[in-house]
Each structure stands twice: as C-alpha cells, then as structure tokens.
Fold this sequence. Notes:
The complex is a heterodimer. Chain A has a single domain (2-233), classed as Alpha-Beta Plaits, CATH 3.30.70.1060. Helices cover 26% and strands 36% of the residues of chain A. Chain A has helices spanning 18-38, 88-97, 99-103, 143-146, 152-160, 211-219, 223-226, and strands spanning 2-9, 41-46, 54-59, 62-67, 76-84, 104-110, 128-136, 164-169, 177-182, 185-190, 199-208, 227-233. In chain A, strands 2-5-1-6-9-10 form a 6-stranded antiparallel β-sheet. In chain A, strands 4-3-12-7-11-8 form a 6-stranded antiparallel β-sheet. Chain A is globular and about 50 Å long. Chain B has 5 domains: 3-97, Rna Polymerase Sigma Factor, Chain: A (Orthogonal Bundle), CATH 1.10.1740; 111-230, no CATH class; 233-306; 315-365, no CATH class; 367-420. Chain B has 20 helices and no strands. Chain B has helices spanning 3-28, 31-52, 58-75, 81-96, 113-120, 127-139, 143-149, 154-170, 183-202, 213-229, 234-248, 250-253, 273-288, 294-307, 316-330, 333-347, 349-362, 370-381, 385-398, 402-417. Chain B is elongated, with a radius of gyration of 24 Å. Chains A and B meet through strand 4, helix 6 and strand 12 of A and helix 8 of B.
Amino acid sequence: xxxxxxxxxxxxxxxxxxxxxxxxxxxxxxxxxxxxxxxxxxxxxxxxxxxxxxxxxxxxxxxxxxxxxxxxxxxxxxxxxxxxxxxxxxxxxxxxxxxxxxxxxxxxxxxxxxxxxxxxxxxxxxxxxxxxxxxxxxxxxxxxxxxxxxxxxxxxxxxxxxxxxxxxxxxxxxxxxxxxxxxxxxxxxxxxxxxxxxxxxxxxxxxxxxxxxxxxxxxxxxxxxxxxxxxxxxxxx
Amino acid sequence: xxxxxxxxxxxxxxxxxxxxxxxxxxxxxxxxxxxxxxxxxxxxxxxxxxxxxxxxxxxxxxxxxxxxxxxxxxxxxxxxxxxxxxxxxxxxxxxxxxxxxxxxxxxxxxxxxxxxxxxxxxxxxxxxxxxxxxxxxxxxxxxxxxxxxxxxxxxxxxxxxxxxxxxxxxxxxxxxxxxxxxxxxxxxxxxxxxxxxxxxxxxxxxxxxxxxxxxxxxxxxxxxxxxxxxxxxxxxxxxxxxxxxxxxxxxxxxxxxxxxxxxxxxxxxxxxxxxxxxxxxxxxxxxxxxxxxxxxxxxxxxxxxxxxxxxxxxxxxxxxxxxxxxxxxxxxxxxxxxxxxxxxxxxxxxxxxxxxxxxxxxxxxxxxxxxxxxxxxxxxxxxxxxxxxxxxxxxxxxxxxxxxxxxxxxxxxxxxxxxx
Lengths: 237, 420
C-alpha cells in the first residue's frame, strides 16, 4: 500500500548550528539508505520554504493569486516522501525514524487503493518541478460543488502534455496519523499535522517552464473553484 | 564639483535608473548585479562628468558604463560566459544603430521597464513586497529611503527586498511582460501598486507630514511611463489623470500651520491649473477607448471637483451618480461612504445619514475613522450637536495622522461650544 509522508518543520526546533544541521543530514542519509535497502522508497523531495509558495484560487469567476502557503501554520511543510508499505503501522514506523519527526512532525496519509506507481523522470530542459497541493476550503459556497467538473479531463490533459508527472488524491485528513519524536519518544496522534480549516486533499507534481505556467495549469484544476491550490517549487538537490 | 553637474546627475538618475536596471536584469538575470552596476555607473558619473564635462547623451553613457561593469563582473564567473557574449553582441548592435527602437531612450536600448514593472508587481509577491521592489528597482530610492517612507526599520525593508528576489528566483517568476491574453488581468495589479505609492505620499498614514511629495512624484512618473508604454490600456491614463488631479491641489491642502484644509475650504487659486489641464487631456484620451474602469471614474469625480470655480458650484448630483457607477463596479464600502458624502451634499445630510446607517449595519468599515467622521459631519450639519460630538470623539480616536486628528478635535470643540 502506498503512503504519503508530509514532512514539516517547527521553526523553534529547526537545526540551527552547523553541528545540528550535520546531525540532521546524517540522520536523513541513514533513513534513505535504510529505506532503499528495504525497497520501500518510491520518491520524495525537499520543498522550498513557504515564502516561495503561491496560492491559487478562483472565486466568483475571478482568479486570485496570492503570495504564501495555503494556510499559516506553526509547523511548516518542508518536503514529502512516497513509500510502499505493508500497512499503516509500517508507514508510521518509517515516519518516526525520519529527522523531521524530531524537528517538526511527519503526517502519514494513505493513497486510495489503485494509486499509480512509477519512477519519476527528471524535469525536461528549461522546466522546473512544482508541488501543487490540492486543499479543501470550507469557506467555499457548497453550491459550487453542484456544478464542479470532474478532475479527469485536467489529469488527462496535463499527463499528455508531460506537465503532470505524478499525483494523487489522498485519504481524508481524519484518517491521517501524525508522528512527532520528542526526547526520543515517538508520539503518534490521529489526524493531520495541523487543525487548519483548509486541509490537504491531494497533490500533483507539475513540470513547468515558470510560475506563470504553473499558475495557469493550477487555475484550470476544478479545485481552484472548489478549494485552494498551493504551488511550491521543489528544492533541487 | 559644481552644483550644476550635481543637478544633471540627479536628473539623469531619476530618468535613467529604472531603464538601466531593467535592461541589465533582462540581460543578466541577476537583480543584485543590475542594481550594483547601475549604482556604480552613477558614482562614476559624479566622478568623471565634473572633470570631462557632461556627455551629449547622458543616458547612453550611463548605460554603457553600467553594462561594461556587468560584463567585467560576469567575466570573472565562468558560468556566465554565454551571457557575456550576449551582452557584447548587444553593445555592438546598439552603437551601429541610427534608428532607435520605439520607446528607446537616447542610448538606443529598448525600454525594458515594462518587463520590470510587471515582474515587480507579480501577484505571487505580497503587496508590500511589490511596492518595495518597484520603488527600489524602478525609481532608485534607496532601501533606507523606502523604509522611512513606509515607517519600517531599514533592516526589515532590506530583508523584504532580499526575500523578494529569492522568491522570484526560486519560484521562477518570469521576467517578462504578460502575454496579450494575460495582460488585462495583470494591469490592475500594477496600477494598484502605483496608486498605493501615490497615496502613501499624498496622505501619510502616521506622523505630522501630510504630504510626501517625493513618493507622489515618483508614482506619477512611473504611471506616466506605464501609460506611454501601454497605450491600449485606458486605466493607466485614468490613473495618471486621477493622480494629477489630486497633486494639482497639493499647495492648497495644508495651511501654514500644517493643518488639513478640506476641499470646500481650499483656496482654489492655489490649484495648479497646468496639471489640471494635463489631467483632463489624459482622461479624455482614456475615455475615447470606451472601456470604463475604476480609475477613469475616480478621475472623472476628481475632475468634477476641480471644474467647480467655488465649492458651492460643485456638481454634487453628477458626483453622486459617478460614485454610484463606481460602487456598482467595485462593490467597495469605501466608495459607498464617498457616495453618501456626495448624496448628502446633493440632497441634504439626512439623505446621507440614511445611506450611512446601511453601511454601519454592514460592519465592513469598522475601525475606519472616516465612517464616524462622516456621521459626525452630517449630524453637525443637522444641528444634532451632542450626537455629533460623540461621533467626532470616536473618529479622532481612530484617526492616524496629526493633521487629521487636529482637524477632528477642532470640529469637536466647535460642536461642543454650541447647544443642541
């Protein structure tokens, strides 16, 4: 079964000294090695910080683009991993060993059954990869959902144009588990990493020439009207 | 150095800074490098022009020096070799041209400022960031000057500018003028930035100086550039007209004590008729396109005010109708408030009060001092002095600047001295 790990950082706990940063890096390296040896890691990446995020939504037919992430949370999203595991417990175990569990939290969210697989190609020449987080927004008029288009045409078009590299709906936030490790103790809570009104419902990885293209693609997603989309560049190695 | 040369350099700075940074950012993709090389060119001008004389084409001189400086710096970095060649090719092409491109200055370089202004005003940047970046790169105001104008510490403003450039690089905000199809959507964002800068200069949000001429002038100059470079956008001309109508009244807005003088009390002989005439022409040009917009309507309203030889002669019913159009277009509660003021002038304060009651029930303007201030004014005119006093107190407590607060307190004293 496939799981998404959403890594967050608590600014108060982020590694600050060079030693702390090195320790975090070492922990991360061994995590990756262990995961590779177990064969469970599919792909993952660091994300640029929330200051580099852009939010896209359409309200009353108007495109609204704003600076910043989909919600202001104390713990800030900093990366993700996609794992193949036997079950939720195994995914949670992997999450607890990740350095982000110590410097923030790791939210574990299942992919619905039948989610696509596949290694990811590198972005093409002149393209950069963005993470598009698809989020619910309870402030949206319920009437919008009566006329909302299905997402399949958007998926098909962006897939065929080589824009969409990977993506999926995720199980609802209520089914998530969030892991934090404090003083070497793993604390697992039910639910997402933050109780914000807006919640992550899914994501897509998009290869685009620039932010304008990414915004244009995001604006065509049905959830631009039905929710909020956050477009954030991946942090290249 | 003679003060004449100093003035020439200062003028050249105002005229050319934006052009030079825009061209260098386009050619090198490096915002910091562009600023540094532009700065260096002006430093060199200050050193060499007193000695060698002011060049015939100051803009070309500065652009050449700035570009050569950029080439030098890039040459030292191996990863930019391709860019260096590109720059050198551009330099050769320009010295050979006899027919400069449209919009080109005396250096023959096409005006890249449009790219720069759309990038600085990109919606993916926070409004305060757009303002800071626009002022820094297009007007050459220093970080310290911008910080002072917006009442933030210099370190904060410096950080804001660094973050802006980082986001542009990391998120890959493209350095270009939006496509023809995207342009209509992006122009309002640019105009909003320019209008915010103008308003910051026109009415300070805190402190005792009511007018900060420099910010106003910079906003006007940039809007002028935008209107010239985007002749198909009537709202750019509309905004320019609006700013000029406002600025034309500058000399009459504040009395010798630094107190605010309301429109009805202003000495209209102190209004700058040349600016008013220029504003009218821009507005007429805009209206020819028959694409009404909020700045054109606001300019028309301002035009109505300045057309009246005396306050009593003001065509209030027309102004009220224009505010109605604007309210329909924007749905803005501030516009509704202004409409209430116009209606009160056209039909009496009781009519204005009725409109205010609707606004107050809405709650959209809670905390905005002009709402109780307007209510106070209507009540005062109706002779309901006790109620007016309460409202003036409420307004004064919310008001920001010294002159505005002083004005409200003066009115408060006035209604208190009467008996209801």
